[in-house]
Amino acid sequence: MTASPIVEIRQLSKTYPGAGRPAVDGVDLAIAHGRIFGLLGPNGAGKTTLLSMLCGLLPPSSGSLRIRGQDVRHQDAAIKRRLGLAPQDLALYPYLTARENLAYFGGMLGLHGAALRRRLDYCLDTAGLNDVADRRVETFSGGLKRRLNLVIALLHEPELLILDEPTVGIDPQSRRFIHENLKRLNAEGMSIIYTSHYMEEVEQLCDEVAIIDHGRIIAQGSVDELLAAPREATIELRTSVPPPPAAQAALRALAHVHTAEFDGKFVVLTSAAPQTVAPAAMRLLHENGVETTSLSFGAMHLEQVFLALTGTRLRN
């Protein structure tokens, strides 16, 4: 049975004044309730603009955007009660303690008295901050700040949690802690939209992924579906010695090879016919006195899919 959508976007566009092209260009997107949905795209692709419109922070130029059937433009207050946003830029007061930050933002969200105290306790426990709850945030590590930034978005018990680069610049322990909590929140029924430049995070966490570039959704599906979709594949070979210039030139000239990159003993080819190119490349290398020690081809991970679709690596 297909889960009902919590987010429905139809022909959504946004053009900034004076811009030569739309930042978001006719996006159609449906996100099912109860999923962790990954939104990927290079810098300037339109992710931030799309999320800003989703949160009601930016009006669209055209199209419609609904959360639980409610129009974001016309039911702003009701929508904001359903949303929790943890922005990439930390939204914290450094001279306040963790508890004081939570109390301040809780009050802004209309929480008071016993209800506020209950949510404060829950958020401090979820973030693992009980032992440092009364320390000023300016003394926190990057990982502790990210944890606090995340749970502020949980204060009002939202149905949909939007996370913009929630683990950027933090230590592996804090990243793992955040991932475990997100999985738990999702298992309890919370829907999550997740953007990240760490492709391995998206592979591990997300039920479904959309890739946006130049303001348009260029691919969408589960991780397995994106990996299985036919497209120009990446062929990666590790060799016994660096291929000499003659072998590099011959590989570049090989039939069906689109691009060829060389980095010491590492060779990366792209081709729409990897089953033909891979054995031919190994044979050519052997003829030039170079043995292949390992070989992989196809979309083995999302980074390769992203590179094939956009022509750039995500972190670039």
Question: In words, what does this structure look like?
Answer:
A 6-stranded mixed sheet has the order 6-7-8-3-9-10, sandwiched between helices. The chain is α/β, with parallel strands linked by helices. The two termini are 39 Å apart. The chain has helices at residues 47-54, 76-82, 98-108, 113-127, 142-152, 172-187, 199-205, 223-228, 245-252, 274-287, 302-310, and strands spanning 5-14, 24-32, 36-40, 62-67, 70-71, 83-86, 160-164, 191-195, 208-213, 216-221, 233-239, 257-263, 266-271, 292-297. The chain folds into 2 domains: 5-227, Rossmann fold (3-Layer(aba) Sandwich); 232-298, 2-Layer Sandwich (Alpha-Beta Plaits), CATH 3.30.70.2470.
Blueprint of the fold:
Elements: E1 5-14, E2 24-32, E3 36-40, H1 47-54, E4 62-67, E5 70-71, H2 76-82, E6 83-86, H3 98-108, H4 113-127, H5 142-152, E7 160-164, H6 172-187, E8 191-195, H7 199-205, E9 208-213, E10 216-221, H8 223-228, E11 233-239, H9 245-252, E12 257-263, E13 266-271, H10 274-287, E14 292-297, H11 302-310
Parallel strand pairs: 3-8, 3-9, 6-7, 7-8
Antiparallel strand pairs: 1-2, 1-4, 4-5, 9-10, 11-13, 11-14, 12-13
Helix pairs in contact: 3-4, 4-5, 5-6
What characteristics describe this protein?
316 residues, 2 domains, Rossmann fold, Alpha-Beta Plaits, alpha/beta, 11 helices, four-stranded antiparallel beta sheet
Task: Give the structure's gist in a few sentences.
The protein is α/β, with parallel strands linked by helices and 316 residues long. It is built from 11 helices and 14 strands. It folds into 2 domains: 5-227, Rossmann fold; 232-298, Protein-tyrosine phosphatase receptor IA-2 ectodomain (Alpha-Beta Plaits, 2-Layer Sandwich), CATH 3.30.70.
